[in-house]
Design brief:
By secondary structure, the protein is α/β, with parallel strands linked by helices. The chain has one domain: TIM Barrel. Helices cover about 45% and strands about 15% of the residues. The strands form 2 sheets. An 8-stranded parallel beta sheet has the order 1-11-10-9-8-7-5-2. Strands 3-4-6 form a 3-stranded mixed beta sheet. The longest helix has 22 residues. The protein is globular and about 60 Å long. About 45% of the residues are buried.
Amino acid sequence: MKRDSNRIMTSHVGSLPRPHDLLDMMKARLIGEGETPDEKTYRNRVTEAVAEAVRNQVDSGIDIVTDGEISKAGFFVYVKERLNGFEGRPGEKYELYTAEQNAFPEYYADYFARAMTGGMVAPIVKIYAVEDITYVGEEALNQDIANLKSAVEATGATGAFMPSIAPGGIGFNDHYKNDEAFLFALGEAMRTEYQAIVDAGFDVQVDDPFLSDIFGDDKLDDTQKQRKADIFVESVNHALRGIPEENVRFHTCYGINEGPRIFEPQLGDVIDHIYRINAGVYSFEAANPRHEHDYHVFEEKKLPDGKAIMPGMITHASNIVEHPELIAEWLVRFANLVGRENLIAGADCGFSSQACYHTEVHPTVIWAKFDALKQGADLATAQLWR
């Protein structure tokens, strides 16, 4: 991870809104709706969109940039394209945040119709492992790496990372003897992607919102939650073996964007498992009202030596732009607990985890949030290094 011992650096979690014309192309390719572009036209448009996204990040004050996951229609689609051994089962309902939905059915009926799953270029389809899993996405991965490398070189960005999904976020098991064997097989396959990203000179960000979700699952007792989380951590570390921790970021969040979020866990529930991930930087939500208090976790659960945190200072769940002075206050608060040199200013989560026509935060507001993040980091730097 690119670090600067003299200031607070800025980054974010990864996904950004895709241009609408590119969404049209994705939709035609995935579900046959609209005019399907030829491969060269499509690839060139992706390359242009990545270059634009990286330029906008740099212009908005982001130090450690990414490709915005521009080429991906979302994790659920992208893993099906890059891993062999799965089959889709469109007839099965994909359940999300059942406790929240049961408590607020009217709200979430409206919410999912207009956000997250609403307006997606491709529907979420449950995928099941039905044979041995292997990685087959080298060509697409190499294209992503080339696009990001070109954009970084053109802009002179300080540093760059590329997100990749954790084993625990990939489908369901209908082949391996148990879920532990399934997750380790997934880790072995995804290791190809993690290693290639690092070999290209970028940091790999392992995205695992599903680790936190375990602790909010009302169908599991405490013992079952601990065991399931243990397996998630072990499968991630299996996939990361041999990759230097300083080249790894680990991100977890709580899945939902704008909502009551009463039934999701708190950082204290999952921090012990987060600390066990072999990563140099831990990224988590901290800017939304359900999690602003989570900084207290670091008063008792001290950050391990050699590690850094990237708490969210701007949220993906609201179009309100956080004030730079408040961001500075939050950063100083964290710095006093973990050390100024162990802190990066980040975002709560991605702004478009699925390729979607209607993102909750308007694209123009996202850049304003990044501007505020940079200003807040500069204000915090002035206080912490004075």
